[in-house]
Write a structure and sequence with these properties.
With 105 residues, this protein is α+β, with helices and mostly antiparallel strands. The chain has one domain. 47% of the residues lie in helices and 22% in strands. Strands 1-2-3 form a 3-stranded antiparallel sheet. The two termini are 26 Å apart.
Length: 105
């Protein structure tokens, strides 16, 4: 994960690499469509729905701009912006894993 934090990696690859470091059980799936009842602001062709799975079970979803998800971040400010959004989610999963381990589950 350290190497990816210093490179021009995309949001997609940064999330996948970071979650893989936490556990091999995380899977990141992306979808071009979203249910309009669940995601009323979703814009087909512009947005992408991201699903985080644990052992093939969906545990978290969010929507982001498709270009933002796939683009490499060659600009320092773009890279920092992307990492801030990704790190919020990554830290949430990291804290959940730590909490589960400390509770003995």
């Amino acid at each position: 994960m350290l190497k990816s934090t210093l490179s021009n990696i995309s949001y997609e690859n940064y999330m996948k690499d970071s979650l893989l470091v936490l556990s091999k059980h995380f899977v990141v799936k992306s979808y071009k469509r979203a249910n309009s009842d669940d995601w009323p602001a979703f814009e087909k062709g512009r947005d992408i729905r991201i699903q985080i799975q644990w052992k093939k079970d969906p545990i978290y979803e969010f929507v982001t701009d498709r270009d933002f998800w796939h683009q490499t971040n060659t600009n320092k400010l773009d890279r920092e912006w992307m990492k801030n959004w990704a790190d919020l989610k990554i830290n949430m999963f990291k804290n959940a894993i730590i909490k589960k381990k400390t509770n003995g589950d």
